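User: Working on a comparison across species. This one is Cns1/TTC4 wheel domain-containing protein from Wickerhamomyces anomalus. Can you predict its structure so I can line it up against the others?
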Amino acid sequence: MAKAFFTIDKIDEALSALEFSLGLDPTNAASKALMTKIQNKKHELETIEAKKEAERLHKEILQDKLNTAIKGRNYTIIKTPRPAEMLTDAKLSLEDPEDIESQLIFPAMIMYPTTDEFDFVASVSELTTPWELMELVLQRPQEWFQDPKHENFTPKKLDAYMETESGGLIKVGKKASLHKALSTEKPKIPLFDNALRIYLVPRIDAENWLSTWDKEITLKKRTELSV
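Assistant: Here's the predicted structure for Cns1/TTC4 wheel domain-containing protein from Wickerhamomyces anomalus:
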């Protein structure tokens, strides 16, 4: 019976059955050998379980530190029902997970609304500026800029906008850090699905684009399950 329990990894039941057997015949060599084998297996399983528990607790501690870092920076995160596919597993993290004062790193969705295009950057520091983001994403072949719709796509000719918690838009300084924008008390500029969302618009087209922005539609898109 003890061997049968051991075969299906019912360690405690196997030990109980074996203890009963040895109680009847304490000198049984086969039972004593099996007892040693089962005790070793139990120790192995307990070691594995202890390691898993330690990893779980450490992960919990790191998550608490991350939450503290986000709260301490006065950042807001909005979760949407249908995040963009590339954001499904998006992670907001500390550069040093053990240090809440280290830089926060997050993915970024860079939107070009006047041409209906976007870029995705997997890791951006909160200390990055919109200007630096522009320089990064505009490292493109010359042919791209020869397209008439991209003729004003240079850091000097683009302006940066971010959504506010209330559904509006705010122009952000191109040479101020993202941290400064995200930590502003009013208007509150949130992260979406653990990622930055920023709109780059040619200054010459900004007025027309801004006139088409609808706060109510924007807020609705944040909560609806289908587009």
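For your comparison, note: The two ends are 60 Å apart (CA to CA).

User: Helpful, thanks.
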